[in-house]
Amino acid sequence: MNISSLLIESAARRPKHPAIRFHERTITYEELNRQVDRLSHALVRTGLRPKDVCVLMMPNSIDWAIVYYALAKVGAVVLPVNFLYRVGELEHIFKDSGARAFIGHKDYLEHPRQVMVHLTKMDLRIAQGVTPGQGFIPLEELFVDEGTYHPFPTRDEDTWAIIYTSGTTGHPKGAMLTHYNLANNAMTVANMRSTDPNDVVFGVLPLFHIYGQTSAFNSSIYLGLTIRLWPHFNAEELFPAIEEEESSILIAVPTIFNRLVEIADVRPPRRSGLRFCVSGGASLPVEVLRRFEDRFHTTIYEGYGLTECSPVCVENPFGRQTRPGSIGLPIPGFETRIVNDQDEDVSIGAVGELIIRGPGVMKGYFNQPEATAETLRGGWLHTGDLARMDEDRYIYIVDRKKEMIIRGGYNVYPREIEEIFYTHPDVVEAAVVGVPHLDLGEEVVAVVVLRKGACSTPEELKQFVKERVAPYKYPRRIHLVKELPKSHTGKILKRSIRFED
Questions:
Q1: How confident is the prediction for the chain on average, in pLDDT?
Q2: Please, where in the chain does CATH 3.40.50.980 lie?
């Protein structure tokens, strides 16, 4: 299994069908596969070898797709990274992964360039839109006409992607996902749903994120559908697209559904081409689901996944009555249990930790044998999410054991933000928590204790953090308090934190 087979087979089956539409450019399956072959030949010429780890740090585009499948054909390991990451976020990922190569975009080189100064091993550096002499090979010069490129014979268990994720402590961990993990997950979710050959899938999720990569991108390529791709989500552009397309599918996070329905409340769509939608990445408020389905005359199938599962593992079954508030049932090939702290099954309706096993579960964390053993103990992936199950075995997420915040579908890890606060000379203590937010699902809030005599304002502290992390991570609200609640051992009790809005 090589994940590039998803493209190769669709190019043979539907050569002239549009694969991706991006702005004014459209590329067919035949042409997409040909461009992938051209780049694959060139990457080998530059010295890229099978199993070399390559950072892919570009915004959504047709070129992102070409690079992605070319790396697969060569047999390299892709490391998709958020192009908005700053130096502090990139340093650990670049060093820990041992990445040999980097492929980026000219508009987002400032921060990776600073990190790469100290990484002599990362000697193959490519960027889109640069001119020669800037320290990067121009991507545009790396396309060679040498005919078909036959994929490197990867095995099912070979790592294809390393995607960094994190719990609430320590550095981010690289989840190792195999060609089989990701290809199987894409094919499974695609086959679960009833699609029409002329369906258009809206590509508004970032492709560096595992959800967009599997559910919107790889699954659509496998089916031979057209992806209408945007560099980023813009409600004012997506709304008219829903009206224009005859038959469309929207894979999104709750924030996107909420933004669209807010427009529809003021300006109802003149028509909706949405055949169905899928929601994941965070819990979808039931009221938002109902309003959206009513305004756009469609059905939203809510599901659940995590990076370590490639990511989809639970979803409301297609074509059946959905259960608002529920993430659904295990998808084909997956099993779920809800257990107590001793990994014993709890009774129906009781709350426990959701654990999972199935074909999408990762090989493990890169360079993290102890964390791997803990997360995959007993042969089950321990999600850290608290859930309950009803009599029909539908699953409902109740809370998270982990303190991770999901803001608009993006993961924000409190410990990372707290560490930045602690580098500020005026800060004694800081706690970062997520609070409910109607549009984003959760908002990032910080509660800070200043040193005696310090006079930093919340706005100054906000700016301090904002300059050091991606835009979605910094706390929009900062509360200054005299002390934080603690246990008898001195541990900050986040659940006891109270503050005035």
A1: 93
A2: 5-154, 193-298
